[in-house]
Amino acid sequence: MNFRDEIQNRILIGEGAMGTLLYSTGVDQCYEELNIINPDLVRSVHQAYVHAGSDILQSNTYGANHYKLKRYGLEDKVSSINREGMRIAKSAALEHNFVFGTIGATRSLRKSDITLEEIKRNFREQLFSLLLENPDGLILETFYDFEEMETVLKIARQETPLPIIANISLHEIGYLQNGMHLSEALPILEDMGADAVGVNCRLGPHHTIRSLEQVPVPSKSVLSAYPNASLPEYIDGRLQYETNAEYFGKSALLLREQGVRIIGGCCGTTPSHIEEVKKNLNGLPPIFEKNVSPRKIEVNETAQQENEEALYKKVEHKRTILVELDPPKKLDISAYLEGTKALIEAGADTITMADNSLASPRISNMAMGSILKQQGVNPLVHLTCRDHNLIGLQSHLMGLHTLGLDEILVITGDPSKVGDFPGATSVYDVSSMDLISLVKQYNDGLSYSGKPLGQKTNFKVAAAFNPNVKYLHKAVGRMERKIKAGADSFLTQPIYSVNQVEEIYQATKHITAPIFMGIMPLTSYRNAEYIHHEVPGITLPDSVLRAMEKAGNDRVQAEREGLAIAKELVQATMERFKGIYLITPFLRYNITVELTKFVREIDAKQKEEVIVYE
Questions:
Q1: With 80 as the cut, is the pLDDT of residue 74 above it?
Q2: What is the pLDDT of residues 12-48, one digit of tens each?
Q3: What CA–CA distance (Å, rounded) separates 342 from 510?
Q4: Distance in angstroms (rounded) separating the CA atoms of residues 550 and 2
Q5: Across residues 358-362, what is the average pLDDT?
Q6: pLDDT tens readout for residues 180-204
Q7: Positive or negative: CA dihedral 73, 78, 79, 80
């Protein structure tokens, strides 16, 4: 029996979910490990699907790669787990069954967690382990990242002539994560040599069918579909799926009408679902042609004309001063607004506002930013990965765009445990690198899921650069990766050493993106000690600590010494960088007002000297 011949003549039925059945037996561990510690349980699942009518079995090896098995300390068992997975599936198969080796995706929300080179190494190790057991074919499934799918499919086709089913996953109906429509993506996989192309997971039958409505019947491959049982419901801390197997079986008829020739099930499906698919199809022949209505292409409106020069552009031709004045922790904002007014009048180009700095709750910087915008200031708003999940981040970006707040600083955010509520959850759905990419995708008018937003945003993206590290070149390397992700400029952590300015300049002089050097005045010896010992990523030189200690406990004297240190750093910075990032301590904006005036005075003197010289 030849698989390629069979899919030309009839509709083949795949398996349903493996994990759903294992979980229902009380198993709550690495499912792939069961291949070597409880093979009978895995075999029983396969046998249940054979009895239900599955034509294609797939090995219990979805996450059996080095990257995922390492979470369980099983990275040295990649080969044995994959080979046993194939053997178990084969032992459960009957003469009419095809047995495919399963390889799942490794990239998830945090695309930056694993590089393409790591993906290639992981994939090859798993692929070769499966091929040793002579599968009838391979199934690549649950690939949200199209780049990853293209990468592994190319390797698979180079290494084996076996049939390959390539299934990608969608967040939105019809659209991939990168904004490509399904009708554009599947022909690419077909041209790369996949024998079957389609979708699996995430969407239930209804949305899977809708996603395939504008996909023509392929000419060189066939369509496959493995929908979830339904959309999941969160009950008592567990994701649960509707178990309406009869509905799932009727949906198989609608999938057939879309030209699908391989129909199986993903999350939440059981042998009952597959049995209903078998009963409803009842030997019906495949559909070879279908009418596809022209796809209505959603056009994103061009971004509105910018009224104000971007900060990263402004710094190219003039000294640019950013002053951080964090929103207050209390609800009275009168002093805050007085401070912002004084800073702008002193010569600050804009106000930057942290997103709950040091993990302590403050008035929303989006709200404060909107107020400043109404007063003629275009603020730079910080956005952390810590406080917002992927849904909240996107909502936040849409809100910022709607309010006309287009200057943002993307940062990871201090962990919750350093703040006022150490028991609060730090989200970190995405890394700062991923968030930069997401913001730039919004500038193209696409949401994270790839669906058009109707408008293109105008965000200018600043990123953080921490020079207070042991190996500066590693920090610069991270900086370069952020530029690749789309960062337009950088704000540094506060520095406290004049020598450090030169070190940073030498390490970053090849960087074309503007760098705003961070300077935060010290206010007391206690403040200096706290920053030195307890604030992540900042270390003060001994000379600075001694100077602040000598200033004593007198507030005026300590503030004067802190200003003197800051002015020395400002002068050193101005010799090398046009961007200055002044950080206001404890809402004491009078300090940064004086520093801002100090910078403008130096600029004015230098300008006068140039005029005199000319």
A1: yes
A2: 999 999 998 998 888 888 999 999 999 999 999 999 9
A3: 36
A4: 86
A5: 89
A6: 999 999 999 999 999 999 999 989 9
A7: positive
- pLDDT above 70 for 322: yes
CA distance 296 to 181: 11
- Mean pLDDT over 268-274 rounds to 95
Closest by alpha carbon to 19, among 78, 75, 77, 68? 68
Amino acid present at 315: V
Kindly report each contact of residues 538-545 with a partner whose C-beta sits within 8 Å and lies 24 or more positions away, as own/partner.
538/468, 538/493, 538/494, 538/496, 539/468, 539/496, 540/496, 541/496, 541/497, 544/496, 544/497
For strand 380-384 and strand 350-353, is the pairing parallel, antiparallel, or unpaired?
Answer: parallel
Rg (CA), the chain: 29
Kindly report the length of the chain: 614
3-state secondary structure of 233: strand
Beta pairing partners, 74: none
At residue 39, what is the residue type?
P
Could you tell me which residue, 610 or 310, shows the higher pLDDT?
310
Percentage of residues in the chain having pLDDT higher than 70 = 95
Segment (H or E) for 224: strand 222-226
Q: The sheet that has 56-58: what strands, in order across it?
A: 12-13, 260-263, 222-226, 196-200, 164-168, 137-143, 98-104, 56-58
Q: What is the band of 594 on the pLDDT scale with cuts at 50, 70, 90?
A: very high
d(CA 583, CA 592): 7
Quote the tokens at residue 320: 């640019």
Find the farthest-apart pair of alpha carbons in the chain and give their distance in angstroms, rounded: 95
Q: Residues 311-331: what's their mean pLDDT?
A: 94
Q: Which residues contact 137 (CB under 8 A, 6 or more apart)?
A: 3, 98, 100, 101, 162, 163, 164, 165, 195
List pLDDT tens digits, range 97-146.
999 999 999 997 777 789 999 999 999 999 999 999 999 999 999 999 99
CA–CA dist 26, 96 (Å, integer): 31
How far apart CA 597 and CA 563 sit, in angstroms, is 12
Write the CB contacts of 203 (distance below 8 Å, at least 6 apart in sequence).
170, 173, 211, 227, 228
What domains does the chain contain, in order, with CATH numbers? 3-281 (3.20.20.330), 311-531+561-613 (3.20.20.220)
Separation between Cα atoms, residue 487 and residue 327, nearest integer Å: 24
Query: Which of 446, 386, 443 lies closest to 171, judged by CA?
Result: 446
First to last CA, the chain: 90
Report the pLDDT averaged over residues 334-341. Answer: 96
Q: What is the DSSP string of 459-506?
A: -EEEEEE---SS-HHHHHHHHHHHHHHT--EEEEEE---HHHHHHHHH
Q: Residue 259: which region, alpha, beta or left (left: phi > 0; alpha: psi -120 to 50)?
A: left
CA dihedral for 166, 169, 170, 176, sign (positive or negative) = negative
Residue 566 · residue 595 · CB < 8 Å: yes
Helix (H, G, I), strand (E, B) or coil at 78: helix
Q: Which amino acid is at 82?
A: N
Answer whether 175's CB lies under 8 Å from 181's CB: yes
